[in-house]
Amino acid sequence: MEAQTGESMVALTESMERMEARLEAATALFERAAALIEQQESDRTGEVRKIVAAVETGREAELQKRLDAAEQTIAELRAQMEAQAEGPKPGRKTVPATTAQFLAKQGIASLDSLEAGTLDAALNGLSLEQRIAVKAQLLRAGVVG
C-alpha cells in the first residue's frame, strides 16, 4: 500500500507540475492579450502618450545671433542702395561720331557747355526729322537735359 501511495503521490506531483506549466502559459497569453487590447483601445480613441522634446538653447542663441547679423547687413545694403539711387546718375557722355562731326562743322567743339539756343541755331539747317534725331542722340548721351 505504501508503494501505491508513493506512486499516486508521484503521479499527483507530475500532474500538478503540468497544471502549473499550463497555468503559467495561460497567464502569459492573457497578459499579451490584455496588452494588445490596451494598444488597440488607445489607437482607436486617439490617446496620445506624453511627448517630450528637448530644446537646444545654445544652438537657438547662435541662430538668433546669425539672424540679427544678417538683418543688419540687409539694412546696411538697403541704405547703400538708397544713397546711390538719390545721388547723381552716371550717364553716357559720348555721342555718335556722325553727330559729333556735324556739331563740329556747325562750330560747336565742346559738348560740356552746350546751350539750348546754340544747339537750335546749329540745327536750323536740318529737316525736322534730322533735328529730332540729333537731339534724341544728345539726350541719350546725357549731354542735354
DSSP summary, beta strand count: 0
Number of helices: 5
- The gyration radius over C-alpha positions equals 51 Å
- β content, as a range? under 5%
- Regions with little confidence, pLDDT below 50 for 5+ residues: none
Order of helices and strands: HHHHH
- Estimate the helix proportion, in percent: over 70%
Distance between the termini: 138 Å
Number of spatially distinct domains? 3
Overall body shape: rod-shaped
Counting helices, strands and paired strands, the structural category is: mainly alpha
Average pLDDT value?
Answer: 79
User: What is the makeup of the main sheet?
Assistant: none
Fold and architecture overview:
With 145 residues, this protein is mainly α. It has three domains: 1-46; 53-89; 97-141, no CATH class. Helix content is 72%, strand content 0%. It is built from five helices and no strands. The protein has helices at residues 2-45, 57-86, 97-105, 116-122, 128-141. It starts with a helix and ends with a helix. The mean pLDDT is 79.
Brief overview:
By secondary structure, the chain is mainly alpha-helical. Helix content is 72%, strand content 0%.
Primary descriptors:
5 helices, 145 residues, mainly alpha, 72% helix, 3 domains
